[in-house]
Design a protein that fits this description.
Radius of gyration: 19 Å
Number of helices: 2
Distance between the termini: 45 Å
Shape: elongated
Largest sheet: 4 strands, antiparallel
Oligomer: single chain
Length: about 170
């Protein structure tokens, strides 16, 4: 009987810790998103996949510049399951060299990117559009795409969220 009580307490502690950890992560993600949207400099992805290192090297092999986004996080709000939505992230070259978007890599197949392929001259604007298909989702979703550009801290992460209704 004593061991059952110990196991129950251990299970509750584990559950409480994992819930607190999720809340901490959510609040950190929200804080990071707000900070990223408020800054003119692009925020880096914290760790780069080994397979993405080639993309980073390719992007950074060009003369570096700086970039500003109209926003880096978007909330679609409530959308119906199966609805296809898109959002355009406007990018501005704030540096002195042409800005080159070499690739945009979404986190999964539900998101398809489209982006300005030609170099964006200093002071000019380009676009990155993320198309999202909500067919396979229910409830709140958070998605991201890595943008490989010729800036010091690449890749840059764009995110969006949506609440999928039945």
């Amino acid at each position: 009987m004593k061991s059952i009580k110990i196991l129950a307490v251990a299970a509750l502690c584990t559950l409480a810790f994992s819930c607190n950890k999720k809340e901490e992560t959510s609040s950190l993600e929200t804080a990071d998103s707000a900070q990223t949207a408020a800054t003119a400099e692009a925020m880096p992805q914290e760790s780069v996949n080994p397979e993405d290192e080639a993309l980073v090297k390719e992007a950074q092999s060009k003369p570096l510049t700086t970039i500003a986004f109209s926003e880096t996080d978007h909330n679609f709000g409530d959308i119906k399951k199966g609805e296809k939505v898109e959002h355009v992230y406007e990018v501005t070259n704030t540096g002195t060299n042409p800005l080159i978007i070499s690739n945009v890599k979404p986190g999964c197949g539900c998101t398809v990117p489209d982006f300005t392929k030609e170099p964006i001259l200093p002071g000019k604007k380009g676009k990155i559009t993320l198309h999202f298909d909500s067919t396979n989702f229910d409830g709140t979703v958070y998605k991201a795409a890595d943008v490989f550009v010729n800036v010091e801290k690449a890749p840059v992460k764009l995110t969006f969220s949506a609440n999928i209704l039945p």
